[in-house]
Every structure is written in structure tokens, then in C-alpha cells.
Amino acid sequence: GSFGGFGGFGGQRGGRRVNRGSDLRVKVKLSLKDIATGVEKKIKVKKYVACSHCHGTGAEGSDGTKTCDTCKGSGVVTRIANTILGQTTCPTCGGEGKVIVKKCTNCNGEGIVRDEEVITINIPAGVAEGMQLSMNGKGNAARHGGINGDLLILVEEEPHPELLRDENDLIYNLLL
Predict the structure, then answer these.
(1) Angle at 118 between CA 152 and CA 132, to 5 degrees
(2) Which one of 60, 68, 76, 116 has the minimum C-beta count within 10 Å?
(3) What tens digit of pLDDT does each residue of 15-38 get?
(4) How many Cα neighbours within 13 Å face the side chain of 86?
(5) Do 35 and 126 contact (CB within 8 A), yes or no?
(6) What does the alpha-carbon distance between residue 86 and residue 8 come to, in Å, rounded to a whole number?
(7) CA–CA distance, 60 with 37 (Å, rounded to integer)
(8) CA torsion 51→52→55→58, rounded to 10°?
(9) Rounded CA separation 140/156 (Å)
(10) Pick from 106, 105, 111: which is nearest to 140 by CA?
(11) Strand partners for 80
(12) Where does the chain have alpha helices with state H?
């Protein structure tokens, strides 16, 4: 058997690491009508996006990176600990297999910049207060390329002036 869960002993780590951007959380207020019928909402989100100057690499031009000398581009290094071979992420390049030698002047080598994006959210009918919806890939961009994080949408119900919601029931207080 393999002891892959114990610091990588006995198992392979599988090459370069893929960066992932962080998730974003937003609150969306909905009326009872929106909840009953479903709605399309457009929201403006401040987030990190890939730098348009370097296309998210963090390097200035095609000669801005070089293959990592420590791992020879594999992103991992083999180490011997008490006669057991194990692989760990390369400490020099952080598992990317390359290092930046000339940083992008726009993003200072990060590959991401702060910006705003208008995102269209399709809210299905029947959501409830406190529910959380998720949109894959609509969160923050990853440093030096990779996979964007997710956008997590928390549903808030706006109070109605005449109706009260009790789970799936609507209560109307009629005064005679």
C-alpha cells in the first residue's frame, strides 16, 4: 500500500501545481415576486482579474520567464528522508516549473489586477432566505494563470409590506 497521505511518502504528486483563485461571496436581495418566479440579476463585482498586459503570466513578454533550475521544470523535487523517497513541491518556483526573470510592469509580476466585472446571475424560482448559490469560475483570478475561484451568492429576502412568508406559505393579515 501507499502512504500518500503522509507528506507524500511512497506516492507521486503528479507534476506542476495548478493555481486557483479565491472564492468571492456576494449577497443578493430578492423580492417575494423574484423568489416565486425566478429572476435574472446583473451585479457589479470588484475582483482580481488576469492582467491584460501579460495575459496573467506575471512576466514581461515571451522572455520574461525561464525554466526553474531547481526542479528542471517539473514543479516537484525528490527528497530522501530516512531512506524513503518522497516528492514535494519545488520551493524555488512553488510548483509552477518556471520562474519570472522580468516582471510585468502593469501587475508587478502577480499576473492579476483589481478590476470590476458585471456578472449576470440567473436565480431559479423557489429559492429561500439563507440559500447559497454557486457560479463556477466567476471568483477571483489565480496568480500566474490557473483556475478562477467561484462566486458564492447568498440569498436575502426583502420584507414585503403586506405579506409574511412562513416557509412555503404566504400569510396575509386581512382586517375586517
Answers:
(1) 15
(2) 116
(3) 556 788 999 999 999 998 898 899
(4) 15
(5) yes
(6) 6
(7) 49
(8) -40
(9) 23
(10) 111
(11) 85
(12) 32-37
